[in-house]
Give the backbone structure.
Amino acid sequence: MIDRPISGVLVDIDDTLLDNKSAVRHAISRIAAAYLPSHTDIDEAAAFFRADRNGHYRAFSRGEIDSRTQRRLRAEDLHAHFGGPVFEDEDAVVAWITAFDDAYREGWALHDDALPFLAALDDLGLPYGVLSNARRAQQVAKLAAVGLSHVPLLVCVDDFGFGKPDPRVFEEACRLLGTAPGETLYVGDEFDIDAAAAVRASLVGVWCDRPGAWERRTDEEVAEAGVVRVGSLTELAGLLRSPST
Ligand SMILES: [Mg+2]
């Protein structure tokens, strides 16, 4: 339950508005066809890539390594695990990233509940914006591709050189939205870096725990973090009220 009045909403992009899981799977299926043995299980490879067990993306979102480096390291981990080749030079890395990006872009699509959710926020008179731990250039292109160019893209990882879960990211997004953190709701698909981090930054933190999501948490963990769990954006829309009522 949402325990206080809400006057603004911040929304994560990947796997919250946009079905990133399917887009990554599509990209990995192309990568597998070009680089990995023919018996490679695409779902397993996509899950492995997304899990990023060595934390390269987290290191990138903390500002410790650049985007190119985190992508090369994740590609190398994937190849090492599934039997792909070692990159011989920088050109080979660039070719891999280009192949991934081309397929990834083809896979960009919104979750079915994304547009109705944003329409519900409009109906309620709640201002909203998005924030993301990905690079701004990519997220601008992504929002345009799915028809959401009009949605304010408040903060991306390159704005500060680091991203969520740092509370300064949420505070800046609230400042740009024009709402105090204590009356702002944030919804994202990752328990720690989205919902729990938002709570630590004094926002209402909502975890969008879609069916078939990557992450599992117990009710005790959710309650202990002070997080609100919903199964869809439709469910979240049903919990919101107009600030004027
Ligand atoms: Mg996300």
Q: What stands out?
A: The chain is about 50% helix and 10% strand.
